[in-house]
Amino acid sequence: MTTPTTAADIGALTLRPVDPLKDAVLLHSWVTHPKSAFWMMQDAKLVDVERAYMEIAADEHHHAYVGLHDGVPAFLMEKYDPAHRELVGLYEPEPGDVGMHFLVAPTDRPLHGFTRAVITAVMTELFADPATARVVVEPDVDNKAVHALNAAVGFVPAREIQKPEKKALLSFCSREQFEKAVSA
After folding, report:
1. CB atoms within 10 A of CB 21
2. What is the per-residue pLDDT across 71-114, written as a single tens digit (0 to 9) for each?
3. Among 123, 122, 79, residue whose Cα is nearest residue 99
4. What is the CATH number of domain 5-183?
5. How far is CA 132 from CA 71, 79, 128, 184, in A?
């Protein structure tokens, strides 16, 4: 994120690229936590997480970022080109489509409104690129909490799709849908 995003009483949210080796222990603790079951890395070893994020770092079509809350790591964001990753052959990508994943770090001290502030900041960052026309997501069909968050920032479900690892709810959010949702 080039400039911090702030939400009332939440604080500054910023992004920096994942450093696969330096961030592996932190990311491993997040993605293997029971609250992160939909990330599908519950049984991952540290080396698996290192390897996964080294592959992303080397991939021109996939990027990972550690999200910081007032300078402290608190969430993970991935963006990808759905014409080349994740959704190849599962829908017809349009120019300006950007795929996104996000994960809020598990915590024993939840901050009311934090996850909504994170997804809003992530979407703001994605739409900061004028080339982004629409954000595409494919969460697990059973992840009702993320469906509600997605709807809150303007996503509209299109249909269920079968990915190799899960049945997913393909959903889209245009720049206009996002702006309308967050201004309401």
Report:
1. 11
2. 999 999 999 999 999 899 999 999 999 999 999 988 888 888 89
3. 79
4. 3.40.630.30
5. 27, 11, 8, 22
